[in-house]
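Lab notebook, bench 4. Still working through the backlog of constructs that have no structural model yet. Next entry is a single chain of 77 residues. Request: give me the structure tokens for it.
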Amino acid sequence: DLTALDALEALHTMVADWHGLVNVLDRKVERVFDPQERAELLRRAASVLEELLGDPAAAIRLYERAAQEDDRDPIAL
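Model written out:
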């Protein structure tokens, strides 16, 4: 249920549980059908991985997935 995942996303953000936030964003990607929305969720998770968790390699993988979801996405490219 996306409503529950939205609440979990807010909670993980509030308590700065970045690993939990990435997990929730990934779970949301699995439940969303719109490619642009999926790309946005993947970019957000990639940003957390890169900027807050210091894992640029994992971030790159998610940015690449975002580009595959929405090939018009200039940010993911």
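Notes after review: The chain has a mean pLDDT of 93. The two ends are 30 Å apart (CA to CA). Flag for follow-up if needed.
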